[in-house]
Specification:
mainly alpha; Serine Threonine Protein Phosphatase 5, Tetratricopeptide repeat; 12 helices; disordered C terminus
Length: 220
C-alpha cells in the first residue's frame, strides 16, 4: 500500500501547508521558490527522489495525491538536485507517463487547487519528444483553464503561468527541443539556437510580474 504519511510529507515540503488560506503575497513568494531555484531539497527528499527514479515508489500512483507527489519527485526534484547535468531530466519520461495516465483516469480532476494542477501538468511541457508541440498546445489550454478557475486574488499568477506555457510552446515550435538543455546534455547547438541562447531568453529564469506579487488582479 502507498505510504500516505510520506506522500503527504513530500506534498507539504513542496506546497507549504496553509496555501489555500494564504494571501497573494505569500503565493507570489511560493512561485519564486518553485520557479526561481528557491526550494532547497532535504536529504529525505533526495533519498525519495532516488527511490522514485529507480521505480521503487510506483505504487504511489494509485491515488491522485500520491501520483502528484511522485510527479514532483520525478519532474521537479531532479531539477533542484542536479541542475546543469543530464540527471536533471532523468525523470521526465516517467513523469510524463504518470501525468498522461492521471489525465485519463481523472486523478488530475480530483485535485483541489490551482497549484496542484499546475505541477501535475508540467511534465507534459518538460519532456522532450516527437509529440512535444502537440502536448504544449494542450498544456496551454489547460493552464488557461487553471488560471480562470483560480481565486481572483491569485489569477495574475496563474495567467503568468499560462503565459510561460505559451513561451515554452513557441520555443518547441521553433527548435523542436529546449536549447538551454544542450550544454547539459552534450548536444551541439545550431547557429539559430546559439543566437537564441545569446539573448538570455531562458523561460525557466523568468519571474512572476510585480502585479502578481501585489495581488493586483485587475492589472493583468
Amino acid at each position: 500500500m502507498p505510504d500516505a504519511e510520506t506522500i503527504q510529507q513530500v506534498l507539504d515540503a513542496w506546497f507549504t501547508p496553509g496555501l489555500e488560506n494564504a494571501d497573494a503575497r505569500t503565493h507570489h513568494q511560493a512561485f519564486e521558490a518553485w520557479f526561481d531555484g528557491g526550494v532547497t531539497p532535504t536529504l529525505a527528499l533526495a533519498r525519495l527522489t532516488r527511490a522514485a527514479l529507480a521505480g521503487h515508489l510506483d505504487g504511489w500512483a494509485a491515488t491522485a495525491r500520491g501520483r502528484l507527489s511522485l510527479i514532483l519527485l520525478l519532474d521537479q526534484l531532479p531539477r533542484c538536485l542536479h541542475a546543469g547535468t543530464p540527471q536533471a531530466y532523468a525523470g521526465d519520461p516517467d513523469a510524463l507517463r504518470l501525468a498522461e495516465d492521471g489525465l485519463r483516469n481523472d486523478h488530475y480532476d480530483a485535485l483541489d487547487h490551482a497549484w496542484e494542477r499546475t505541477f501535475f501538468l508540467l511534465p507534459l511541457a518538460h519532456a522532450e519528444g516527437p509529440d512535444h508541440r502537440e502536448r504544449l498546445i494542450r498544456v496551454c489550454a489547460m493552464a488557461e483553464a487553471v488560471a480562470w478557475s483560480a481565486p481572483d486574488h491569485l489569477r495574475p499568477l496563474y495567467r503568468f503561468a499560462a503565459d510561460e506555457a505559451r513561451g515554452h510552446r513557441a520555443v518547441i515550435a521553433r527548435f523542436g527541443r529546449y536549447p538551454h538543455r544542450n550544454a547539459a546534455l552534450g548536444r551541439v547547438s545550431t547557429a539559430e539556437e546559439a543566437d537564441y541562447l545569446a539573448t538570455g531568453a531562458l523561460a525557466p529564469r523568468r519571474r512572476p510580474p510585480i502585479a502578481a506579487r501585489l495581488g493586483l488582479a485587475d492589472a493583468m
